Amino acid sequence: YGINGIFFDEVSTSTSDLPYYTQLRDHVKANGGIVVLNPGTVPDEKYMQVGDFVCVFEGSHTDFLSFSPPSWLPNYAPQTYHIVYDVSNSSLSQTLSRSLSLHGGMVYVTDLNLPNPYDNLPSYWRVEVNEVRNCTK
User: Fold this and answer.
1) Residue 92 CA neighbour count, 13 Å, CB half
2) What is the pTM of this model?
3) Which one of 12, 34, 42, 134 has the fewest CB atoms closer than 10 angstroms to its CB?
């Protein structure tokens, strides 16, 4: 398969770094790619013009329950995503519903935890896929 985009992790949220990320975006776009940014938190609104997709939350289930996005964020709903880890099987549906209610365009939920919640698929992967599929119907 061919590469069709670049995922930039640990992205700054500062406006002073926007020229750097804009330059990276321009290079990726000039080569026909998509740009995925992961600051892991809500960046300055101007970053929404840089990334095709922007992670506006990356953290634990506990932190996600108190996540309060700014009022402008729903304007960018299709391009935002949430990454939520340390989610128990019994909290999966609640977490997916919360992501939807916060206008998350995409979501990844896992029962894995730090230091590396990405080294395996969640134990409830098939259930999660089905629930997400049902949310989008």
Assistant:
1) 20
2) 0.93
3) 134
Burial of 12 (0-12, 13-18, 19+ CB in 10 A): middle
Write down the pLDDT at residue 136.
63
CA distance 27 to 85: 32
The token pair at 121 is: 């698929």
Digit-coded pLDDT (tens) for 86-109: 999 999 999 999 999 999 999 999
Look up tokens 């964020």; give the residue. 73
Place of tokens 């080294």: 119
Rounded-to-integer distance, Cα 71 and Cα 73, Å? 6
Angstrom distance (rounded) from CA 81 to CA 70: 14
Residue 25 has pLDDT above 90, yes or no: yes
